[in-house]
Every structure is written in structure tokens, then in C-alpha cells.
Amino acid sequence: MLDRYFPAGIAATLHLYMQRTIPVMFDLKCPINYELWHHMLDSNKNQALDNIKERFALEVSDDYIKKALGKKWRDHKSTLKKLYFKKDISLEEKLRNVPSRMLRYQWKDAARFWNSKKGEKVSSGQKVGRLQLFEITHRKKDGSPMTSEAGEIMEKLKEKKTEYEAIASTDSSVNLENIDNRKSEMCYQYSSSIQG
């Protein structure tokens, strides 16, 4: 899987690093109790990087190796979640079922996060709809619309959504998913008018 993103040499090296050479070091230096790879301390990433460089002669940049390492960390975390957390047992049993080579506190932190509402939301894999994407890409950091036209479109979309939801609440034959489809058409027409 990693071969699609990185040259075979780096993929094979990191596979060895994770699976055979020093798996305990990986669990200690890149623990799974961080929500995201970007939240992990740079010192942890640098220690893992140094361990790789001590054992393997790679002709790629440190940033490249760190990106590959981040991918393997996410894969490792996902595998642990599938094997140990997604069992049909209570949270207490999951917390006691610590994977081998894993420090208990790291496992407990990760399991508690996965069990939280925030963790469930992150792992739900919900896709961003075109309407949401339009709003995200057409707002400034302070939340205001980028342009007056974008603001007008957003207002129209809110009005249409309110109208449609009112109809849907009284008429069970109305499909709420059509709200996003109609809004997407408006967003598309707006973006086409700007580009054209």
C-alpha cells in the first residue's frame, strides 16, 4: 500500500523498521496516544528518524522520511484499533486488553479517545459535501464571506434549506438529501459565473 506514495526502498525500509527491526522503539518514540501525527512532538519524530538513519542508508530528505513514517504510524494505529478496540466488548475490557509492546497509559489514552464523541466523529469518515466545501472555501479566517456574491449565495442557500426542511417535516416523501443536491447546483452555477 505504501508503495503507491513512496519509492520501494523507503517503503521496504519502513516496513522493516515497523515490523522486524525495532518495533518496541517505534511504540516508544511514536506512541499512538496522539490524535494526529501533526500533534506528536518533533523530538519523538526526530528520535525515530535518527533510529532509521542509524540503520539504513537512504538517499531521501528527512522530511520525506517523516512523511512516510507518519503514514506507517497511521496504518499501525489503524491496525491496532481494528485488532484490539473494535471488538464487541465493554470499554473496561478494551482498556485491559493492551496490545503487546504497548505501554498501558498510551493504549488507555488512545482507547478513551476512540470511545469519545470526538473520536467517533473523526473516525466516521464522513465526506464533506459540495455545499460545505463551498462555505469553507468562500469564507475568510474571521468567518465572513470572501466576496459579496459568495455572501449572497450563502444567504440564498440558508433560505432554501429552511424552506425545504419545513416542507420535509410535513411531507415524508421529500428526501432531505436533495437539499444538498440543489444547493450544490447553486454553488456550481456561482463558481462557473466567476470563472467564465
Automatic annotation (TrEMBL):
It holds the Pfam family Transposase_24. InterPro entries: Probable_transposase_24. This is Uncharacterized protein. It comes from Gossypium barbadense (Sea Island cotton).
